[in-house]
Amino acid sequence: MQMAVPSICGDMLLWVANASGSLLSAMVPSEPGQTNQHCPPSCLAWNPLLQIRTTLEKVRNHMFKDEEEHGNENYLLDAEQSGNFQNGSDLTTDPNSLDFLMENMRRKDQQLLEMNRENEMLKIKLEASREAGAAALRNVAQRLFDNYQTHSEDMKKKQEDGRRLLQINSLEKEQTLKQRAENLSQLSEKLEEKHGQIIGLENRVQRMENEKKTLLERKLCLESKLLQLKSHDVHSKSCQDLQTEISILQEQICHLQFVIHSQHQSLHSLIEEMEGLKNTLKEQDKNIENLKEKVNILEAQVRRESVLSVSLLVHVWLCVHKCVPACK
What we know:
Elements: H1 4-27, H2 41-45, H3 48-69, H4 75-86, H5 95-232, H6 236-327
Helix pairs in contact: 1-3, 1-4, 5-6
């Protein structure tokens, strides 16, 4: 099929050469000395047709040489080159050229069919990849949603447990505070009672001290009187009575001294108890303040944990609801 155009060109050149030869034969005499009637005298001196024929033969040989060297060139380029030599001759009339065109068309159609099949396969793969990606996103979104539900249930349970513990702790702390308040009230009553006892003991000791003082004065008076009687050596019976009375007074003074000492010890014990109660009151006040501070800290921690858990749940919920529309 590729030899068709060069063959046509060669035939054309051969025809031109033959026509030139015929024209040369008509214009140049076949024998020397013979004159052609149709050729002017100038043709006898200059023979351009011989030169044309020689040139055409060279062109023909050169084209056949190019045909052997470039036999695999494109058909359209050969057709264009041959058209320049044929001066407008129609190449489509050549069956070899038509077969070549049909073969090219069939080859192009086959390539188009293959490209269409490849495009269809690419479309199928693209749809499959899209579907796989959407399925993966749906699975991820479902897992996120399941994790969100599980986490939300856990957080709700933790919040309920924390709230329950907070309520229990609050009740315990309130009960403790109430008990401490009752203890404070009892301690205050005891302090008042002890204070009253101390005042009573102080008054009693004061009376005993006054009585002791009176007894000591009477004893001294009797002793001086006894000394006077003994100095005169009279009234022995009176002296004996005075001695007896002095002895009774001494016993009373000793008894009062013992009672006063006991009352002082009791007073000292009451004062120590009162100081201990005061210290206990201070400790109770401090414990109450510490309990109040602990309750406030616990409530603040529970509120902070609640806020953090709620914010975390909201964040997870937003992430899940961002992924779900993308999957759709």
